[in-house]
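dumping this here before i forget
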Amino acid sequence: MRTEVVMGTLVSIQVVRAIAGSEDAMARAFGWFFEIEKRCTRFDEQSELMQLTGQAGVPVTVSPILFETVQFALMVAKESGGAFDPTVGHQMMSRGFNREHRSGNAVASAIAIKDDVTFRDVELDPDRRTIRLVRPLTLDLGAVAKGLAVDLAAREIEQFQDFAIDAGGDLYLGGHNPQGNPWSVGIRHPRHDGELIDSLCVSNQAVCTSGDYERRSPAAGHHILDPRTGESARGVASATVVAPGAMLADALATAAFVLGPEVGLEFLTRLGATGLVVTRELRRYETPGLCHAA
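structure:
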């Protein structure tokens, strides 16, 4: 197993049976986390994403990584009716979620930005690979960029069949665990530290959880905003999603958290994912087909 700090979290990669070439593959896998952080973070004023922020009103040619990440985020925003929206960056920053994880320094934008921007204020041109911010805004790709890094890392090591990637709770589990069984994933209890509320069995899939306990601001509540209201989403304590890829699972977990249990589960089912939503009263709602570990 190899562990590094990147994208503001601990990332661990485990290959069950290390063979020739596995170390090189893991090095390439970690390289994706650093590359995507450089492109997609809003916590570095020099990142490609933050450079885009300073060019509102004009089409900007961007890297394939940034373009595809924004394109995917906008697709989820449209599908969720705005319950997921990558244009909440300024709202997040104004609520104190604006510190770079290595230095602890606050990152601020000198551009005047209003809170009423939405995903409809971002225009893409796939032929020219340009992004135009119709109005001044700050994109927050936190709910998709880390998942994309996990997916690209998985591609680098999928040849070894049995492996696990854990990026601060964003998981991709390939094949089987060291005992030859599907991986068992414990789901954290949203109110009792050190306890699990469920365990899922997973093979060749990603698992991501959004919880109101993950990051909190003393002045503004937890970090999962309902973009439609500008406030921390209420009613749900955690939402866990199992999907073919981590970028999809991460974004859908955020959307399901905001949408709430009934609408959130309908949304997951429509997009071909399974999941578990736990309310603040600890009521459990789950989609058909969710695989529970014995």
